[in-house]
Amino acid sequence: MVDLIKGSSKGTSCIEDLCYVYVLYFDEAKGHQPILIFPTEEYKDSKKFMRPIKYHPIWFFDVKGQDSLDHVDVEFKGYTFFGKKIQTTSKRKKKRAGLEVETPETIVIIISLPNDLVIFGDELIRIISEKVKEKYHDKLYEIIEYLDVKDEIIKSPVVKEKINKGLELKKQLNDFICDNVKSYFNDAIKQQDHLSIKKQKAISFLTLKGYNVSYIEPVNGKTEFSDIQLFDSSKKSEELSIEAPFIIENVNIIEDSNELEILIKNNTQKDKQNIMVTINHLEEFFEKEVLNQEIEYWFQEEEILFASPILPRINEYLLFIIDNKTSEKLVSRKIDITLVNKIKS
Q1: Alpha-carbon distance 141 to 94, whole Å?
Q2: Distance separating alpha carbons of residues 105 and 94, to the nearest angstrom
Q3: At a CB cut-off of 8 Å and minimum separation 6, what does 145 contact?
Q4: DSSP of 76-117, one letter per residue?
Q5: Please, which residues have CB within 8 angstroms of residue 241's CB and are 6 or more apart in sequence?
Q6: What are the residue ranges in the chain where pLDDT is below 50?
Q7: Is residue 338 part of a domain?
Q8: Which domain does 59 fall in, by range?
Q9: Dihedral pair phi/psi, residue 124, rounded to 5°
Q10: Which among 140, 156, 188 is the end of a domain?
C-alpha cells in the first residue's frame, strides 16, 4: 500500500499540515488539561494555540445529550475543530466535594483540520474517539495520575512507578493515534467520490502540500475527476462555491436595548421545517443559553431576524442551527460582538 503520509516531500512531520488531535480531561481545580496533543505538544502552553480548545462548545455538552449530535464542531481562523466527549474509568481522588474516586473521567477528543480538508472531519473524529475509547477506556487514568504527580519535588517509589507507567502509556497512545490518522488518510483519499467538489478541493490542498496522491486508481480505466481545477485561475470562483444551507446576512448591536441582532437567510431553494436556532455564551467552563427558538417552517430564501440579549462582560457567543428531526448541526458559528462590523458570511 502506498503511504500518503510517507509520500509527502516533508516527511512524517507533515502530519501537522493534515490535522491535530487533542486528548484532554477535566481537572476539578485546573480546568481543561491536555493528556496528549498529536503530533506535537510544543504549543500546549500557548494561549493563542489553545484558545479554540479551551472554549470549544463540546465542553458544555453532557455525554448523553451529545449522542444525538454525534459530535460538535466549530470553525475558527481557517480551521474546523471537531469535538467528541467520552467517559472512561477513573481511579483518581477527585478535587471537588461530592465526587467519588470511581466517578468516571470526562475525556474530550478534539481534531482540528484546515478548512480545505473539512470533508474528512466527521469520519475521522468518529474513528479516533471510538478506537481510543475501545483500547484505552481502562487505561487513560494512568496518564492522568502521571500528570498529577510528575511535578512533585520528592518522588517516592510509588510516584516513580506512576510516572513510568504514565509515560509509557502516553507514548503508546501517541503511536496509536499516529497509526490511525495515517491509515485513515491513506484510505479516505482513495474513496471513489472524486466528482465531489469538496473532495477535489481536499486533494488539491494535499497536492500543493506535497503529498503523493498519484496512486488513486481510476474507475473503469478512466479518471473520475471532473475538469474543474480548484487552483485554475481561468475558472470562475462561483463554479467552485459550495452552497451553505443557511448564511448570516448581517449582525448588529442595538445599543438602546442592549441586544444582538442576527439576520439569517435560508440559502436554499427548499423550505426547511423544524429548525432550532440557539445562541449560547461561554464564560470559563460554563455555558448559558440566551436564545432558543424553533422555526416550524423556514421558507426558501426567507430571511429571519433573531434578537438575543447581550450579557454584561460577555463578548463571545455561539450560534447553532440544528435540524430537529435528524439532530444534524447545520451551522455553528462563534460571534465576537467586539468584531461584529467585520463578520462576513
Answers
A1: 12
A2: 10
A3: 91, 92, 162, 166
A4: ETTEEEEEEEEEE------SSTT--TTSPEEEEEEEEEEGGG
A5: none
A6: 1-2, 7-13, 68, 192, 194, 215, 217-242, 284-285, 342-345
A7: yes
A8: 12-188
A9: -65, -45
A10: 188
Please tell me the distance from the alpha carbon of residue 117 to that of residue 80, in angstroms, as a whole number.
Answer: 9
Residue among 60, 107, 104 at smallest CA distance from 316: 60
- Answer yes or no: pTM beyond 0.70: no
Q: Are residues 314 and 172 in the same domain?
A: no
Q: Provide the mean pLDDT of the chain.
A: 77
Place of cell 488531535: 21
pLDDT digits (tens, 9 = 90+) for 91-149: 887 777 677 888 888 899 999 998 878 888 888 999 999 999 999 999 999 999 999 88
| Dist. CA 179–CA 321, nearest whole Å | 35
CA 7 → CA 117, 127, 185, distances in Å? 18, 23, 12
Distance CA 125, CA 71 (A): 8
**All cell numbers assigned to 21:** 488531535
Alpha-carbon distances of 208 from 10, 53, 205, 215, rounded to whole Å: 12, 27, 5, 16
